[in-house]
Amino acid sequence: MSSSARTITEKILSTKAGREVTAGDYVEAEIDAMVGHDVTGPLAIEVFESVTGEDGTVANPENVVFTLDHHAPADGVEAANNHNIVRDFAETYGTHQYEISDGICHQVMIEEGFVRPGDLIIGADSHSTTYGGLGAFGTGVGSTDLGTVFATGELWFRVPETIRFEVEGALPDGVYAKDLILRFIGDVGFDGATYKTAEYGGSAIADLPIHQRLVLSNMAIEMGGKAGIVEPDDRTVTYLERQSGLDVSLDPDLVSDPDADYEAVYTYRGSDLAPQVSKPSNPENAVDIDEVAGTPVDQVFVGTCTNGRYEDIRAVADVLKGEQIDSNTRLIVVPASKTVYQTCLETGVLETLVDAGATFQSAGCGPCAGYHQGVLGDDDVCLATANRNFPGREGSMQSQVYLASPATAGATALYGEITDPRGLETERYDDYAVATAEGGR
């Protein structure tokens, strides 16, 4: 390859294509890992069977992962049947398959060691961009593409242009990655990064723990992004070693070159940023929390592949320890995985939340897409740590959903109205050290 300046996206796709490529090129690339769940998996399986026939084989079964997470546990006969379709396929072809209590696909993929820096990963779920928080190129595809890749192990891509979001300086207390990504989406719009890579950098991003970097990558799709990437570093390696048990050797070239070509660069000073809330009914409706503070809410939902990790739930518990949630407000907490659930149990976080009046449920997607475990009714107002708040996203078309950080969610549950978390007793917890220090994982 030549020494021309490239983005991290161009470097990853060049490696996977076996030739140097730049934005706008089309490539056929080998997939390192792929994932489907109980909603998209059966459709992908149907495509695979139609493509390969009765004697079909899965190209790389060790790279294929299924999770049962959206309707988990099954909330009806159709969901139960879909679970069985996935179970049968995994048993027949020797692919990986995780059960109803194991967790959300993106969290499971990370915890179980299917994601490494520089990997190319696809999933039949739009939030497969999450893997970019570990320096991979992760992207969502349709079930048709996924089913075909089961058979071929490869997929074609158009190499996306890159938009860079750069944040310098320290973030103020009460401002987290969720606030950053809501601000970014608000600035570019819900389609402002369509089929682009959202690349996140600067000293403030480098200082973020991994669980917060994953938030940035997860919600790249909310501005249309094909991928969302944070350059991997020593913190990434340490996280993967402790969280996933991986032995990772980081390629020092797995960074964007200083003179790489960006379609646009957005720059921010950390000290200028405030907690953000996205108003109904689009993530792009992000405003400083002062504009909506005092808005009464009926429900607070903490969870999802965006903010359902231990550190997120811990942030809520830190606000509510020894307190009671507002008597007119419901607090629904759904951890992203069984591991997260166990850590909450071992560290006392689960007890703290239940004592405060929360409903703590088994791992899964649940309310995020309005399936079960906390669906909203007509005229319900919810503040959620989720990634989307489109009309009807969490239930009734007449409900309203605001998006915010876990710290804001905890403060809101305490007072029953949207509340600025600044000034409350909260701390920034390291992504891999807290649970270990306190006897957890």
From TrEMBL:
Heterodimer of LeuC and LeuD. SUPFAM superfamilies: Aconitase iron-sulfur domain. Catalyzes the isomerization between 2-isopropylmalate and 3-isopropylmalate, via the formation of 2-isopropylmaleate. It comes from the Archaea. Keywords: 4Fe-4S, Amino-acid biosynthesis, Branched-chain amino acid biosynthesis, Iron, Iron-sulfur, Leucine biosynthesis, Lyase, Metal-binding. One of its GO terms (biological process) is L-leucine biosynthetic process. HAMAP family: LeuC_type2 (MF_01027). Pathway: Amino-acid biosynthesis; L-leucine biosynthesis; L-leucine from 3-methyl-2-oxobutanoate: step 2/4. Its cofactor is [4Fe-4S] cluster. [4Fe-4S] cluster binds at residues 305, 365, 368. Belongs to the aconitase/IPM isomerase family. LeuC type 2 subfamily. Residues 11-416 form the Aconitase/3-isopropylmalate dehydratase large subunit alpha/beta/alpha domain. Its EC number is 4.2.1.33. Binds 1 [4Fe-4S] cluster per subunit. One of its GO terms (molecular function) is metal ion binding. It is an enzyme of class 4 (lyase). The keyword Protease does not apply. It catalyses: (2R,3S)-3-isopropylmalate = (2S)-2-isopropylmalate. This is 3-isopropylmalate dehydratase large subunit. The keyword Transcription regulation does not apply.
